[in-house]
Amino acid sequence: MNPDTLFQVANPLALAGWLALAFSPLAPRLAQRVAGLFVPLVLSAGYTALVLAFWASSEGGFDSLANVARLFESRWLLLAGWVHYLAFDLLIGAWVVRVARREGLPHLLVLPCLAATFLFGPAGFLMFQAWRLSLRGRAGGNAGTGVAA
Fold first, then answer.
1. What is the C-alpha separation between 94 and 18, in angstroms, rounded?
2. What is the pLDDT of residues 105-142, one digit of tens each?
């Protein structure tokens, strides 16, 4: 198998998790199991296998931007980096849905935050937190607390 083939497997797998989150009001527990556990576990296992298989033979590292660029010259480690993004962004998306449900926030307003997290990771997390903060301000502090869940 080559990195392009694994890329073509990882993307639809992650997308299945995002779709589960988008439709989570229909089956909340199933959505959390799929998007908050199963898919991230599979992606994490794939990431770990890639790192174990290709890290030692790679050049570069994390001590400078130039070395990070050298590290990702390996298509296998570039794929590992991509799978890392897929897994962790999905975990944040699952957290967003879980917190929104717990705090009684409307799912329709969560969807743009999920889309932003899917496409831009941390910007979606920031968007969700800003939205929660604005709702808390309007509700006199009753629309959720903190970031822990």
1. 8
2. 999 999 999 999 999 999 999 999 999 998 877 765 54
Domain boundaries of the chain, sorted by first residue = 3-138
Helix 3-22 to helix 107-120 angle (10° resolution) is 170
Residue 125 burial (CB count, 10 A): 19
Residues 6+ apart with CB under 8 A from 51: 77, 80
Q: What is the DSSP letter of 36?
A: I
Q: What is the pTM of this model?
A: 0.88
Which residue in the block uniquely carries the two structure tokens 């975990």?
Answer: 91
